[in-house]
Amino acid sequence: MSETQDAWQRVISAFEEWIEYEATEFAPWTGYFSIENLRDLTDEERVGWMYSMVDETIPSRVERCRQAGVAFEDFLPYMPDSDAVEVVQSMIELGTVIQDSMLGESDVIGDMIEAYKEGGLDEIEPLLESLSEAELDIRHHMSLYSQGFRKLSSAGFELPSDME
To answer: Is the pLDDT of residue 72 over 80?
Structure first.
């Protein structure tokens, strides 16, 4: 396998690991971005969810996104032309925007912890709305990767069938 193909495979692998984490580890917890679903939990479970999101789930999510960015950075020197360089650079920048938004979610949940301790569920409802909006924004930005992958595919980089 050529160095270019090896670097491309690292990009694909990092991106697939990130998407797998999103689907299996992160997405199930987003059900609690709703006040109705949080009402189904005990006080201890609510606080545990919030701390788990801040201490483990979101940092792991950010790390997966960061690793995809590192793979794109490593792939950059193998671009055949300036157009492909521009595509990869935009994908790197997109990852940075997404990471910042994810870290913003962590900040919101940190604020939720304090608000919940002070006033209970009623105090965190506006923060849950903010969290849901941030997640929609992240999902929108994640969907933009498909444009970059399509452009790289048209430049001759083969995509796995589930990414086409």
So the answer is: yes
